[in-house]
Write a sequence for this structure.
């Protein structure tokens, strides 16, 4: 099924997201930020779109700007673009976004904090401090979160409502996780193979 494309960028000191129509190069609409406290320093690092068209954009800042804008924020735009929400200021860089089948939003930071938010809502349902650096995130339909260890040597999972991460795969130079629609624990090591193992 053809899908729209969502392109976040900075233009004239304003955060924007172009929505490009399926199978087209035409911009269908542009979502324009109205809540970013430092819009001229906006630097998008991750984008994810919910089934209802809500767009979530994570932003970070180049190290040279960290003194002026030390936070790492997550914004949500309604499908129409008429509503925008500052979901959260994170303590460290956002390294991954994900959605489960209920359209809950999963946010992983570089420092190992995994937060879960209801759709278009700034009040977290849960936050887990994993106290280790991760570098990638994939979320299964049931809410199981899979994360790549920061050095690319292992994949961990956090089950729904769990407060700890469990090792599920090891390797070298792991840089991505792919989940099948019915992602199961037994399938994860295969899906998380590194370049060297392929």
């Amino acid at each position: 099924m053809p899908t729209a494309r969502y392109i976040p960028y900075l233009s004239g000191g304003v955060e924007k997201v172009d929505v490009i129509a399926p199978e087209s190069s035409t911009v269908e609409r542009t979502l324009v930020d109205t809540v970013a406290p430092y819009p001229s320093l906006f630097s998008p690092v991750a984008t994810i779109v919910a089934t209802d068209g809500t767009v979530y954009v994570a932003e970070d800042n180049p190290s040279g700007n960290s003194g002026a804008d030390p936070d790492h924020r997550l914004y949500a735009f309604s499908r129409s673009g008429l509503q925008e929400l500052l979901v959260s200021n994170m303590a460290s860089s956002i390294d991954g976004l994900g959605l489960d089948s209920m359209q809950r939003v999963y946010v992983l930071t570089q420092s190992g904090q995994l937060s879960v938010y209801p759709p278009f809502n700034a009040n977290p349902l849960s936050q887990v401090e994993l106290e280790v650096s991760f570098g990638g995130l994939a979320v299964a339909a049931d809410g199981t979160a899979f994360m790549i260890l920061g050095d690319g040597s292992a994949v961990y999972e956090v089950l729904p409502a769990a407060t700890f991460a469990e090792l599920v795969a090891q390797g070298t130079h792991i840089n991505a996780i792919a989940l099948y629609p019915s992602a199961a624990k037994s399938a994860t090591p295969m899906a998380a193979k590194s370049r060297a193992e392929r």
Observations:
- The chain has one helix and 15 strands.
- The two ends are 29 Å apart (CA to CA).
- Residues 130-198 form one domain.
- Residues 92 and 147 are 16 Å apart (CA to CA).
